[in-house]
Amino acid sequence: MQENTAIPIISQSKNQTVGPVFKFGGTSMGSIERIEHVADLCLKLKPSAIVVSAMSGETNRLISLANKILERIDVPEYDMLVASGEQVSVSLLSLALRKRGIAPMPMLAPTAGILTDAQFSRANILQVKGEAIKEALDKGLLPVIAGFQGVTEDGQLTSLGRGGSDTSAVAIAAGIGAKECIIYTDVDGVFTTDPRICSAARIIRKINYEEMLEMASQGSKVLHIRSVQLAAKWGIRLVVKNTFSNDEGTEMSTIDEPIEGEIVSGIAASQNEAWIQATCANTPQFNLSNVFDLLAKKGINVDIINQGEHNSSLKISFTITQTDSNLAMETLKKEFPNISLTLREDVAKISIVGVGMRTHAGVAARMFKTLANNGIEILLVTTSEIKVGCLILRDKVSLAVNALHEEFIPKT
Amino acid sequence: MQENTAIPIISQSKNQTVGPVFKFGGTSMGSIERIEHVADLCLKLKPSAIVVSAMSGETNRLISLANKILERIDVPEYDMLVASGEQVSVSLLSLALRKRGIAPMPMLAPTAGILTDAQFSRANILQVKGEAIKEALDKGLLPVIAGFQGVTEDGQLTSLGRGGSDTSAVAIAAGIGAKECIIYTDVDGVFTTDPRICSAARIIRKINYEEMLEMASQGSKVLHIRSVQLAAKWGIRLVVKNTFSNDEGTEMSTIDEPIEGEIVSGIAASQNEAWIQATCANTPQFNLSNVFDLLAKKGINVDIINQGEHNSSLKISFTITQTDSNLAMETLKKEFPNISLTLREDVAKISIVGVGMRTHAGVAARMFKTLANNGIEILLVTTSEIKVGCLILRDKVSLAVNALHEEFIPKT
Fold first, then answer.
1. Which of A31, A46, B73, B335 is the most exposed place for a label (fewest CB within 10 A)?
2. CB contact under 8 A, B87 and A83
3. Do both B178 and B302 map to the same domain?
């Protein structure tokens, strides 16, 4: 479920005295005991509004019910179904707040005014009409709002796709003029790399929005990409914290300098990768423009792209998420009957990310050397101003991440 | 959860060609297999709109989650919570219809325009704005609508209280100008009495609306009372059928004659009864008006009322549902410190119901004689034009029902 990267239009609020918006994820809402804990935290820290995800496991339970009937996610009933998970969370947290003497205002997307387009299962927020939420605030109520859901102009419920609650929270913060949005989750913050792969991984205390975007899109699962884009656009201070610890967490920052003096802030590894190589002799229609237009129309996002020659035919090589690999293969075969295709699903992408790269030459070379020294073959390369990414064999991921962490991330 | 008996205002539709509204209860929606069966039935029988309850057990599961936090049902988050159950049903049935080539229009209360007052957990339908449903019909879509829920004018979700989906279905039928509403459930129809108590019980093929009201309010659980009132008011043909059999079911009729030549159509037994007897010496404020006004303000509905003298003090004797007995006792004690109260919860009410009584004298006498012949003491009596009810000891219910069935209901 790829996010449209267009930035939604948000109505800005005039009232600038609004406190932070808190967002609690599925694990934080995972049981009655945890919901009571979340209510205690809110009693103590007094957010202006709360956005919640479904209880962990609930969305999967609902989807598995649906899939027993029909595997369609592009229909309104799918969105209506999954939206019920957040509805339950909103209700239960509201009860827990009321028990503590806080008057809640439970709100779903239609009452909270979270307008989206009508792309079911992957809708984009167009606008958060903050008026209803602000009205609740004016009455001294604490809005408890369903994340992950929206409503079309003609009143149909939509869902934003997995992880969309982060985006809901930031969009709501923007909609009501809040300056801060705290994403409460089940980890202490954003790590320099995946701690399950690399035991030297540590929390990044401050990270630049652009770095965070690269980290998120490269497979670091802490935050939904769009939420980071929105927070950057609207100048909302975005913080990731652990619901169950007192760790200060990770703060996103607009500072465009290496924050802790480091060239590389983090190392991202994405294993959900597939690599397709295609050649197609004597077919003028087989060109970059047509191929990627075709894939885009199927909703397939392409990451690394490489163009070359093979026996005087054009050779196009690209990576996509493994989830899309079958669809991509079928689409290409259907359009180009003469095509020669190879699909490799034993690949992964390793990226080093840091705004410090802008001012430090030779970072890519150090990365390639580190990988070579460890006998890791580089299949494809992609770079941006603040990132170098390499496609490698998937069974080398752990070795690569640990070697790059050792090379680039100072021990504290 | 007592229903307000005021009849809601329904907007009548101009289009008179609308087919039947089907309503499926929790048992009918109880599993994926059953939902697929319901979809098959709809494919075959082509209703104009479908109203569904939550999957059986789901509402109880949600309420038990809520009760672990706070036992409050008069708050918006309670209604929002329980409404999620119907939302899941609507979604899953819509998927099953789509699988069969039917284009569904899944609708919740706000989009379907089911307006209620703001009495949370026991809201009353004020109006069904049929326009959105009719619009879906005009587009060739099959509306699948959440029962049991409504929306206040300011957009908050409400719930109608247990059994409210029947009322939703009839109100929606009225709102879109349907002439027929079929309530699909897990029994073959309305029985002459509870078949678990009396093996001679059989299906009533046609029953007068007034009889049905008496049967329903006297403890026959097949239909929600308000749905029968509404159907009678709007002249909607109401039928109860079994989702899982081909039985023709029970049809409500406006015919005001004994339909099958019988004086008594059915025998209702209600075991959720409590009997309170109160005296209060030297207290002028202790009178029928004050006592029942006091109880009404607490939402307690009183059934049989008896007034007498005890040692020159007023003695008030009345029955209520057992569920309300503690609240009634506390309320009376608080208001009348000198009150003398006895509460009996070992009682039940047996009623014989039939429009034939209007024209046949001596029916009550036959009932009393039958009970006396079986050694069953009558504690209180209540009568209406088409009903005689007796309060008896609860351990005599089975004996009484069988004896009265034998006396009044002809064998077929």
1. A46
2. yes
3. no
Q: Which domain holds residue B401?
A: 267-408
Q: Report the run of H or E that residue A412 belongs to, with start and end.
A: none
Q: Is residue A297 assigned to a domain?
A: yes
B182 with B34, same domain? yes
CA distance A66 to chain B (A): 6
Of B244, B261, B166, residue with least CA distance to B204: B261
Q: What is the ipTM of this complex?
A: 0.82
* Domain termination residue (choose one: B151, B186, B221): B186
Q: What is the pLDDT of residues B181-237, one digit of tens each?
A: 999 999 999 999 988 899 999 999 999 888 888 887 766 678 888 899 899 988 899
Domain membership of residue A200 (yes or no) is no
> Which CATH number does the domain housing residue A338 bear?
3.30.2130.10
Which among B98, B108, B157 has CB closest to A70?
Answer: B98
Question: Which residues of chain A neighbour B101 with C-beta distances below 8 Å?
Answer: none
Is residue A5 over pLDDT 80? no
Interface test with A, best of B37, B69, B158 (most A CBs within 10 A): B69
Residues B159 and B300 reside in one and the same domain: no
Alpha helices in B102-208 (DSSP H): 109-112, 131-138, 164-176
Q: Does the beta carbon of A66 lie under 8 angstroms from any beta carbon of chain B?
A: yes
In a domain, B118, yes or no: yes
Binary contact (A95, B155; C-beta < 8 A)? no
Is the Cβ of B98 closer than 8 Å to some Cβ of chain A? Answer: yes
Q: What is the pLDDT of residues A66-85, one digit of tens each?
A: 999 999 999 999 999 999 99
Is pLDDT above 50 for A12?
no
Residue B352 has pLDDT above 90, yes or no: yes
pLDDT tens sequence across B146-177: 999 999 999 999 999 767 999 999 999 999 99
Structural domain includes residue A147: yes
Retrieve residue A377's tokens. 């073959």
Give the distance from residue A179's alpha carbon to the nearest chain B alpha carbon, in angstroms.
28
Residues of chain A in contact with residue B35, where contact means CB-CB under 8 angstroms, are: 69
Residue-by-residue DSSP string for A227-247: HHHHHHHHT-EEEEEETTS--
A347-368 per-position pLDDT tens digit: 999 999 998 888 777 899 999 9
CATH number, domain of B168, equals 3.40.1160.10
Q: Do the beta carbons of residue A81 and residue B87 sit within 8 Å?
A: yes
Is a pLDDT exceeding 90 seen at residue A313?
no
Query: Which positions 130-149 of A are in contact with B (Cβ < 8 Å)?
Result: 132, 144
CB pairs under 8 A between A and B: 117
Per-residue pLDDT for B18 more than 60?
yes
Kindly identify which residue of chain A lies nearest to residue B152, measuring between CA atoms: A111
Among candidates A226, A228, A215, which has minimal Cα distance to A349? A215
Predicted pLDDT at B411: 81
- Asked which of A132, A166, A186 is the last residue of a domain, the reply is A186
B96 in contact with chain A, both atoms CB, cutoff 8 A: yes
Q: Is A19 on the interface with B (CB under 8 A)?
A: no
Residue in chain B nearest A112 by alpha carbon: B155
* Predicted TM-score of the model (pTM): 0.83
Q: Tell me: pLDDT of B15 over 80.
A: no
Chain B CA closest to residue A89 = B81
Q: Is A84 on the interface with B (CB under 8 A)?
A: yes
Q: Is A55 exposed, middle or buried (0-12, 13-18, 19+ CB in 10 A)?
A: buried
Mean pLDDT of chain B: 90
- Helices first, then strands: H and E counts in chain B: 12, 18
Question: What region, left, alpha or beta, does residue A140 occupy, with left being phi > 0 and alpha being psi -120 to 50 degrees?
Answer: left
Q: Which amino acid is at A304?
A: I
Beta carbons within 8 Å of B262's beta carbon, 6+ residues apart: B354, B356, B408, B409, B410
CB within 8 Å: A65 and B92: yes
Q: How many domains does chain B have?
A: 2
Q: What pLDDT shows up at residue B307?
A: 85
Question: Amino acid letter at A224?
Answer: H
**Residues of B with CB below 8 A from A108's CB?**
80, 157
Among the partner-chain residues A36, A76, A110, the one whose CB lies closest to the CB of B106 is: A76
